[in-house]
Amino acid sequence: MSDIDLHALSRCYGRAFASCALVVPGVNRTYRLAAGGDLYYLRLYRPVGRSAAEIAFELRLLREVRPPPGIDVARPIRTVQGADCAQVAFGGVDRVACLFQSLEGRPVTDDPDDMELFGAALAKLHGALAGIDGGAVRPLDPEALCLRACAALMRVSGSEAARRAIDRSRTELFGDPAPHDLPSGNCHGDAWSANAVVQGGTVGFLDFDDCGHGPYLLDIGTAAWHLVVRKQPRAGTLIAALLAGYETGRALSEAERRALPHYVKLAEIRALLFLAEFCTLADGLWPRALDRATNLLEREVTI
Fold first, then answer.
1. Which residues face 197 on adjacent strands?
2. Torsions phi, psi of 67, nearest 5?
3. Which residues contact 19 (CB under 8 A, 6 or more apart)?
4. Is the pLDDT of residue 178 over 70?
5. Distance CA 258, CA 266 (A)
6. Is the pTM of this model over 0.85?
7. Strand partners for 134
8. What is the distance between the alpha carbons of residues 300 and 302, in angstroms, rounded to a whole number?
9. CB-side exposure of 73: number of CA atoms within 13 Å?
10. Max alpha carbon distance in the chain (Å)?
11. Per residue in 115-163, pLDDT tens?
12. What's the DSSP call for residue 234?
């Protein structure tokens, strides 16, 4: 039985939803809905941490982007009243929710050809998102993200070593003038293989909840970080394929290449920030998360 009122949701969107399945639990609950042979995804935004202006920018980005051949994005769907979002009752309170089109396709695999395709699509996405105003409401400032992570972890017992490692990483990133003024623009914010699908030669991008304006390396570093932390035995080969694909659309500068290892570490810092601000880990899980982060931040990352 669904914990979402499908009748109310059907009236809200003018679609006869016949089924509802939870596909992503946790902070941003996401459901797969079916209506008339079509699939949709409904996201319940977390109760705190996303302002109305930030949500509006995400939806504006997805409505205004004009994807070139080779990429697609999951578009948001307005209510019958023309509103960007709906109010959906969950757990006794109303949550802000948005309905998205479904992008069908196969997963992006840990294969060099797929990773090169993903990298090329990411460069196209950056180009397609460029010029859409409003990113100031969602700044992805690397130094500010490091400082926020340290502040959020103050509430987590045993996080002292991780906080010191974050501070050292921040000093390394901003101690060299080269990483400043890197190419920047609107970013996906959580660009990795699980947030994309492939259909033919087209890569469809999903889940722009963490989108914002910042260095493009933030997206590239996130994709590379996922390969590193999953202990993918071919991480080096796959990262090389990712970069080769990306550079078919935009060549990386020498400054970006030097800074990329720091942005792999920044992805780890952002993961800790998310956990500290929005998730409550069981006491036994925090030491593991902190140890992993500390180990990655204190070692040399080579790309």
1. 107, 204
2. -65, 135
3. 2, 33, 34
4. no
5. 14
6. yes
7. none
8. 6
9. 27
10. 57
11. 999 999 999 999 999 999 999 999 999 999 999 999 999 999 999 999 9
12. T
